[in-house]
Amino acid sequence: MRVAIFTETFLPKRDGVVTILCQMLDALEDAGIEVCVYAPPSAPHAYRQMRVYPSWGPRFPLYQELYCSMPTFAGVRGMVSFKPDVIHVMNPTFIGAVGVIMAAIGRVPLIASVHMDIDYYVRQYAGSWGLPIAWTFFKVWHNRARINLAPSTAMVNQLTEHGIERVRHWSRGIDTSRFCRTPMNAQIRTFFLGDKPNALVILYVGRLTSEKGIDSLLPFCNDPRYRVVLVGGGHHEAQTRARFAHTDALFTGVLIGSAVVEAYAAADIFVFPSVSESFGLAPLEAMACGLAVVAPYVGGLRDTLIPDENCKIYDHADPSALSRVVDALAEDADERCRIATNGAHYAAQRSQEQSMQELITLYRQLAHAH
What we know:
Layout lengths: L1 E6 L8 H15 L3 E6 L6 E2 L2 E5 L4 E2 L2 E5 L5 H10 L3 E5 L4 H12 L3 E4 L4 H8 L5 H12 L4 E4 L2 H9 L5 E3 L16 H8 L6 E6 L20 E6 L5 H7 L6 E4 L4 H8 L3 E3 L9 H8 L3 E5 L15 E3 L6 H11 L1 H15 L4 H18 L1
């Protein structure tokens, strides 16, 4: 079986969408399925043994992390010769929309998946006036797919309410062999604490962009009880560093591989203040590594968070709520341990293997039915 994947986001960028895509590509190759990838201009030309066709085009003015991607001549020739049995488009906007068109021309079964909170991102970067336009645009592409996959029940509801058809929930998972409780690296712990050897480390892992709500961590900076560590990058990284410039917050930049796991292991509390998540992998990773998680109970996070069991939640509309929850958790070591233990047990059952097998089964069913 041959599968062509069209994605608006790919390496070298690091975010949840790229993490899921790499999980997909690894699982497909391990299953003996041939794959080619159509990706943004910044993408590499290969991933493992798979051919990647970078597109061309400028960055999207309203959201600089997105490219107005169009296929190259090499990409079009590659598609014709590859002859896919299934086409999968992820967040079809530019190169993904091209994938929808090529599926229609070639009469290839099409599957589409959503990886962002469309309502939130349109309001954030265009304004509410753009919502009717955006949903009309996405309906055009998504309703040509035989199946539309959503990462959480919240996103299933959002898509269905806006007229997107044939929506089904595609669960998410993590690499539980990598994200698990490991011994703390004393050198990293010392580096994180700096001149606050008796503080608790508050960790954030994710993109440094405005929609992640990172500014809500500012009250914990310069507090002798805490050391704030921010792991990640993004097109707002310079602005984020500038807003934290007067604080003692530590920026590590993007960490990959075992370095991320070691960062989780060296922290005490994981705070994830984003209210724009279609799913949210980082809280699940933090749980697996034995961290007590604090996050708002919104959107796709509801599929991961079990309040007062595997996490502590707070009302993101209340400016002081996050501080109250973190302070209470900081003062109660037994509660931190209980939440962390429950979270690790929960995350251990959310392996990516089941998620990827579900996707491969869908590919085979579509190809066979076609």
